[in-house]
Write a structure and sequence with these properties.
The strands form 4 sheets. A 7-stranded mixed β-sheet has the order 10-9-8-7-11-12-15, sandwiched between helices. By secondary structure, the protein is an alpha/beta fold. The chain folds into 2 domains: 79 residues, Translation factors (Elongation Factor Tu (Ef-tu), domain 3), CATH 2.40.30.10; 156 residues, Rossmann fold (3-Layer(aba) Sandwich). It contains 5 helices and 17 strands. A hairpin with a 3-residue loop joins β3 and β4. The longest helix is centred in the C-terminal third of the chain and has 14 residues.
Length: 250
């Protein structure tokens, strides 16, 4: 959908200290992994994965998300989308690896693959584990927290060697984490898909701000979900570009 749809915020759920889910009065038909361009009027337009058909889950990290956090029920947003390629048909049984707010696009995916998946869910601390119940209700769940407040004390990737019996890995989270997941998938000889959280400006493939080096694949329309084969040998996990096009080391 290219035109801007006006949506009203109907509910706001505080997930953790700096993460909220905003529900609105319109439900999108989408493939898990697709995103919408969210217009915070007078501030900016930013990409957000759909965590529900009628909801986005946001971490407060800058001016635009800070302005979004200041909104209340009854306030409105402009939205375009959904855009991009979501997760493709998975080779089941599958393993989902979610880090931090990367759980947002994976939760609806888990619900579509119910009882055919295992999920590794990670966060810095127990209070930041997103959508724990949604993943528990969709299959086996392994938890990792950096401070050991829940589940395994350590990182999501530490649990990869402890998980067996899957044919594909689907992941979203910090890119350095996903690079390690890809390396594991290559060694294990299994297929993989990754949802990239790159800087997206236009959402329609014109500006090139979200290109993956050296292929030139654009996260906004060729992604944000890419296969491991597409990303292996690219800048994935090494650097991305900021709003000015400068390389930012990960």
């Amino acid at each position: 959908m290219m035109f801007v749809r006006n949506v009203e915020i109907t509910d706001i759920n505080t997930e953790s200290r700096d993460i909220k889910t905003f529900f609105f009065d319109y439900s999108f038909h989408f493939i898990p992994g697709q995103y919408v361009m969210v217009w915070i009027r007078g501030v900016d337009e930013i990409p957000m994965s759909l965590s529900y058909a009628n909801g986005i889950t946001v971490r407060n990290v800058g001016d635009a998300t800070g302005a979004l956090f200041a909104l209340r029920e009854g306030d409105t947003l402009g939205m375009r989308g959904p855009f991009g390629n979501g997760f493709g048909v998975a080779k089941l049984p599958a393993l989902l690896v979610a880090g931090g707010v990367g759980a947002a696009p994976l939760a609806p995916l888990a619900e579509t693959l119910k009882n055919k998946i295992t999920t590794i869910l990670g966060a810095k601390t127990e209070n930041e584990l997103l959508f724990r119940e949604r993943f528990e209700n969709s299959g086996a769940l392994l938890i990792a927290t950096e401070d050991g407040s829940a589940g395994y004390k350590g990182f999501t990737v530490d649990l990869l060697e402890r998980t067996k019996g899957y044919n594909e890995i689907l992941s979203c989270g910090p890119e350095k984490m996903m690079r390690k997941v890809l390396d594991h998938a290559v060694v294990a000889g299994v297929q993989s898909q990754f949802s990239l959280q790159r800087y997206i400006k236009c959402g329609v493939g014109l500006c090139g701000s979200c290109c993956v080096d050296p292929s030139g694949l654009r996260a906004c329309i060729d992604g944000p979900v890419f296969t491991g084969k597409q990303l292996d040998g690219s800048d994935f996990g090494r650097y991305m570009r900021d709003a000015a096009g400068r390389k930012v080391t990960l």
